[in-house]
Amino acid sequence: MDLPFTESYKIKMVEPIRKSTRKEREEWIKNAKFNLFNLRSEQVFIDLLTDSGTGAMSDRQWGAIMTGDESYAGSSSYYHLKETIKDVTGFEYFLPSHQGRAAENVLFSSLIKAGDLIPGNAHFDTTKGHIEFRHADAIDCTIKEAYDTTKEHPFKGNVDLDKLEHVLISNPKERIPMIIVTVTCNTAGGQPVSMQNLKDVYQMAKKYGITVIFDAARFAENAYFIKMREHGYRNKSIRDIVQEMFSYSDGMTMSSKKDGLVNIGGFMAFRKKEMVEKCSMHTIMYEGYITYGGMSGRDMNALAVGLQEVVEFDYLDTRIQQVKYLGDKLIEYGVPVQQPIGGHAVFVDAKRFLPHVPKDEYIAQTLAVELYLEGGVRGVEIGTLLADRDPHSRENRYPALELVRLAIPRRVYTNNHMHYVAAILKNVYDRRDQLKHGFSITHEAPILRHFTVELERVHKEASVRK
Question: Sites of the modification N6-(pyridoxal phosphate)lysine (predicted)?
């Protein structure tokens, strides 16, 4: 008989988690102003808010921590990480940072000015935030298939080449400091980008003299999908696929808290020394000296080991099969999700789930709160709150998709936990017709509001008067 799927690791340490009562959760979420970010960790049973920095490190990583070199300049841990990055990505030059958005801050401070245009495939929230903070514009060039959650397409993270070329033709190249390609594309549902698309984007960029930067937080998961879905790659190793992927870019930013398999850290890496020279001043100003950049030596050591582990097929197969397990359960229960299932998370289609909730009452946030109330599961809204306001009109931006992301930490939960999450969602789905109203904002920040927003419920009577 065929053998069942099993994890490629065994557990050495456990952490207890507590089941709360609905009455407790109702009080906690109310005190949190209906913002899931404001909950304390002990108020959450299964935490799928993010896969960023929430994974479990391996025994080899914990061992590497003990040999970290904490020298301010020229740490041996820095050189160990530098050699590993070159080995895995092919990039010779790199600058560490304390996390991914810090790398974005350094890179964008060095290259982006007011009035610039930065095309790409559905920029991540902090990426767009950094761009708009500098009074530049992020231009979404994702393929249209990404915005139909019912459509099966193996590479929904792909860049639409016609859209991209229109941006490049219509604007002087001085206004386009870079093209950003996010692998995998988080905002579109953790969807991968094909190797052919990466190659086509790079060739087009070279034609117009534009730099290509990868937002490579989940580069290894992207490589896994190329291996499994793209013709000609099934017999290639993950490491070889990763090398080819990065050959179609000029540089990268990395939140190491994802595919670096660590709890903190990030970096930038480049093909040319001039890019490092442009960014070094801002690294020193914002992060620290160029050989530690906000990271401790022990964390650089752990990251070096994590980057080697993440390109092992067995690890990736275990990781992505668990995400698929949750997605398949939800599909079995009739819950609408982005299909095919992505790499790091399952994305529930809140518009199809809650068709009666008005769009100005934050559909995905309404579903995310209800999921928490039902069973103590914390996801995150990828919808109108995250889309923020248009920087020019200050009106809400209503994205094509309203999603609740269930991001699965690496090497943390079992498939029993995933089954529990699916059952909680099914319970909410079975009573979805009772959920007709959402939330209004009582307080918000001028940018990246979803992290600190405060909300109140919209009651039926108030909605009718409105």
Answer: 258
Both tokens of 193, joined, read 């980008």
Return the active site residues. 72, 124-125, 215, 217, 258, 450
The CATH number of 59-309 is 3.40.640.10
- Ordered by start, the domain boundaries in the chain are 22-51+313-465, 59-309
Residues of the chain with pLDDT under 70: 460-466
pTM of the model: 0.95
Cα dist from 201 to 149, 168, 209, 228, whole Å = 24, 11, 12, 21
d(CA 275, CA 249) in angstroms, rounded, equals: 13
Q: Look at phi and psi of residue 428 and say left if phi exceeds 0, alpha if psi is from -120 to 50, else beta.
A: alpha
Nearest to 157, CA basis, from 202, 188, 118? 188
Sort strands 212-215 and 179-182 into parallel, antiparallel or unpaired.
parallel
22-51+313-465: CATH topology: Aspartate Aminotransferase, domain 1 (3.90.1150)
pLDDT at 465 (0 to 100): 40
